[in-house]
Design goal:
alpha+beta, globular, two-stranded antiparallel sheet
Length: about 240
């Protein structure tokens, strides 16, 4: 059976790449911020405390302007356009009347939202399903916590160290029972996916730093990119 991830990129926007998998991994301690409203924290804790799959991974620190990194985190639909334009990721995020939706490009589709944004932390929640022609639809919820530290670097930039903690609660009892036989495989897969999410952060911000005008022009040529968000991005990049 092929595993496919729910990636809740809120990459720096994303991403998040979330993992909706048919296997069980070791569970890290829940990492929901204490500052979250009690009702929201309780709702997400129902996922993190009983997760079928959980992982934590940190990536290599990277240099970027903090305000650019955080803009992408806080505008996931725009960030998805950016990563697709740069051919760094293939997922799509779009807005419907009931909120944001995510398609990871591998069969997973679901509702997606950034539910908390605080100093150095973003929390995302998704609910959806993975569909494959050989399998019944696998449904579940996912919570992703992105935590990052910032240290001063040269030229007004920052050294950003990001880590991702992810939780997926499967809603298919038979799939979850079978998954318990493959916990070691799941742990390795989940850690790879979490590290890959941090790499997407680094590659995207590196491309912006290398050629901000060129990146902006590529986005400008896409008719589906929000013009107000594109203008805010232009100002953030300090382009004429």
């Amino acid at each position: 059976m092929k595993d496919r991830p729910i990636r809740v990129l809120a990459l720096a926007g994303t991403l998040v790449v979330l993992l909706l998998s048919s296997v069980l991994a070791a569970r890290p301690e829940p990492a929901l911020p204490a500052e979250m409203p009690a009702s929201e924290r309780s709702r997400l804790a129902a996922v993190t405390a009983t997760a079928s799959l959980a992982t934590h991974a940190a990536g290599e620190p990277f240099v970027a302007r903090r305000e650019v990194f955080e803009y992408l985190l806080d505008h996931p639909e725009f960030a998805a356009h950016l990563t697709r334009t740069l051919r760094i990721a293939r997922y799509r995020i779009w807005r419907e009347p009931d909120g944001l939706w995510l398609d990871d490009g591998w069969g997973t589709v679901g509702r997606f939202a950034v539910v908390y944004a605080g100093n150095g932390t973003r929390v995302m929640h998704a609910r959806g399903g993975y569909t494959h022609w050989l399998l019944p639809t696998i449904r579940g919820q996912a919570v992703v916590v992105i935590e990052y530290g910032v240290q001063p670097a040269a030229d007004g930039k920052s050294l950003i160290s990001a880590a991702v903690t992810g939780f997926v609660k499967l809603e298919n009892p038979l799939v979850e029972m079978a998954s318990r036989l493959l916990s070691r495989t799941a742990r390795a897969k989940a850690e790879r996916e979490a590290r890959q999410l941090v790499k997407v952060f680094a590659r995207t911000t590196r491309a912006i730093e290398h050629d901000p005008a060129g990146v902006h022009e590529l986005l400008r040529l896409r008719p589906d990119v929000s013009r107000p968000e594109l203008e805010a991005f232009r100002q953030l990049l300090r382009l004429p």
